[in-house]
Amino acid sequence: MGSLTAAVPFAGTKEQEAALLKVIADHKNDKGSLMPILQQAQEIYGYLPIEVQTIISNEMDVPLEKIYGIVTFYSQFSLNPKGKYKISVCLGTACYVKGAGELFNKLKEILGVSDGECTPDGKFSLESCRCIGACGLAPVLTINDDVYGKLTVDDLDGIFDKYK
Description:
The chain is α+β, with helices and mostly antiparallel strands and 164 residues long. It has 2 domains: 14-73; 85-161, 3-Layer(aba) Sandwich (Glutaredoxin), CATH 3.40.30.10. 43% of the residues lie in helices and 12% in strands. The chain contains 7 helices and 5 strands. The chain has helices spanning 14-27, 34-45, 50-60, 64-73, 93-97, 100-111, 156-161, and strands at residues 85-90, 117-118, 124-129, 141-143, 146-148. A 5-stranded mixed sheet has the order 2-3-1-4-5, covered by helices on one side. A hairpin with a 2-residue loop joins strand 4 (141-143) and strand 5 (146-148).
């Protein structure tokens, strides 16, 4: 995205913050606890916005730059919220050769978001992924647990109708 602020405003609750502070308190003195704390923070919030990273930085007395570096290095962490409907387009070789790039570009256009982003209403998030093991159905996309294969750009409107 380029900046540290997401298109979707941070909407953490006091309950989430209390849960995070408890996790930090429980692990604060454990050696190597930063990764497990970040993982649990992401479970609590669904992603790791700068506001959450700042809480962890302050409570753990770890520089924010170090936390940001870890969060952006490991693909398991996300700086952006996930939508109610998580759309993932396989850009592995078999899917890409059969037109997954066109599908992905059309989805970016339809949703008005880039790879890894969420629509402002929080309904859809879009991400690319590598092979999901459904090469015989190429090109493939998933929406949450639903798998759609042998797609063309023209199929997208019909698929979206199910999620509106």
